[in-house]
Amino acid sequence: MPEIDFLVVGGLAALIGSIVQGSVGLGVGLVATPIVTMLFPSLMPGSILVVALALPVATLAREVGHADLRGLGWAFGGRLVGTPLGVLLVAAVPQRALGIVIGGVVLAALAVTAWSREVPRNRRTLAAAGVVSGATGTASGIGGPPLALLYQRESGPRVRATLAVFFIVGALLSLATLAAAGRLPVRQVTAGVALVPFVLAGFAAAGPLRRYLDDGRLRTALLAVVGTSALALIIRNLL
């Protein structure tokens, strides 16, 4: 059973992150990962990957019909390549340097797409986003921004449902790969399961915000979440 301080701090982070993701489409890993990494590093990345698996299931229960399954096929192909790369990064690169690099990559992608009139979404960009997401998601628990940036101009239900399918498959793949490599302790999985009630509570509380953002405000919120998460990751590792 996880300690009470983890349940309080980690649970609050998972609750807030779930409210963000339940309305924007991503956020639980972006909010909870820095906090859990900083205060409970021995529980990373497995605990957040378990959380990242639970929340999308709730999203799909509402919006499964909006998922872009054709586009996800190319992204999943990239994820298959990126996930083993993430395992290698965990083993070979110091955690501080890894966090700075991941944050920088996300900020660069954000800058390019935010100033583009149209973000190209084709088999090449989807596959590339899958590779980057697989590597960063497995290494740090933050894998949503690359794909989210490609769908930033879509409707709220399409963004959330598409990302939900991607997160479920991606989290399962990352967990399986880490387990096969002997880098997924049981205590990390147990800690993640303990946070699931907080995740579900956050998703339920996100309803009013979800309706507000779906009224033409989702793209701004999505870009703000991605940019804030990248900056926070960089600053935390620099300090």
Automatic annotation (TrEMBL):
UniProt KW keywords: Cell membrane, Membrane, Transmembrane, Transmembrane helix, Transport
InterPro entries referenced in this protein's UniProt entry, alphabetically: TM_pro_TauE-like (IPR002781), TSUP (IPR052017)
Coiled-coil blocks: none
Membrane topology term: Multi-pass membrane protein
Transmembrane domains' residue ranges: 38-60, 72-91, 97-115, 161-182, 188-209, 221-238
Primary location group: membrane
Compartments, record wording: Cell membrane
Annotated Pfam families: TauE
This protein's GO CC annotations: plasma membrane
Family: Belongs to the 4-toluene sulfonate uptake permease (TSUP) (TC 2.A.102) family.
Protein name per UniProt: Probable membrane transporter protein
